[in-house]
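Write out the bound-state structure for NAI.
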Amino acid sequence: MPPTPMPQDLFDLTGQAAVVTGASGGLGRHFAITLARAGAKVAVAARRSDRLTAVTREIEAFDGRAFPVRLDVTDPKSVREAMAAAETELGAITILVNNAGIAITKPLLEQGEADWDSVVDTNLKGAWLVAQEVAHHMVRLGHGGSIINVASILGWRAVAQVPAYGASKAGLIQLTRSMAVELARHGIRVNALAPGYIDTDLNHDFLESEVGQALRRRVPQRRFGRPEDLDGPLLLLASDASRHMTGSVITVDGGHSVGL
Ligand code: NAI
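---
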């Protein structure tokens, strides 16, 4: 058994190589910066190259190490090429943050097959494709690692107008558990983060609206989350601090999903 790290070193990611999907903006950008600040080399992966270059520069500005890689999580070939490029550039991937995700908000009766397919293909099938590819790398190199799936409290609580989103996140939570059971023998841990409403550029206007403010009043802490509220849970799951955790889902929602 390796020696137990000192408490102040528990969350240190020096020497680790991480991939963050959907890192061109929102939570993914923030996750990439947080992992890099903790010492990890980070492959920032998404479809928009210009945005990825900007995130890479932000990380390099504090002497962090980042590598932009184009990735469409719905395309198996893109997934294979992106993970190979990340490994060539940064070395063995030891952390994956499966963050890429989309939502289509409209009434159930107006949602078409294409709406369903794009949400489920990105949030569930895409997460599976990337996790399986990274797991192949981890098993081949025999070093284990940590896979973190970004789910949502809408994976077990329901709201109107996002049926595919809720179903995809529920599926992602169960996929987390299935992968945890099967990959433990390879030293790979698989856990999920389930955030409540986190204020990002994408949803800021909605959260500030009348409907959003009514929603806020139902959160026991009476506020929405900020991206930095996820830093501790992310670093816990990414680091050796959670070495005996796998198949867990950590809720970060100010109490939203437990209130009536
Ligand atoms: P966002 O829209 O700002 O970020 C999503 C990212 O995923 C973007 O960088 C986008 O380019 C990328 N992406 C979408 N489709 C992709 C594809 N096919 N291939 C590669 N990248 C793709 O949204 P946000 O808020 O940052 O969400 C990030 C994750 O957190 C999502 O999985 C979302 O479901 C989850 N989440 C967000 C919450 C929030 O309140 N912001 C709450 C709970 C979960």
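---
The CA atoms of residues 195 and 252 lie 5 Å apart.
The longest strand covers residues 188-195.
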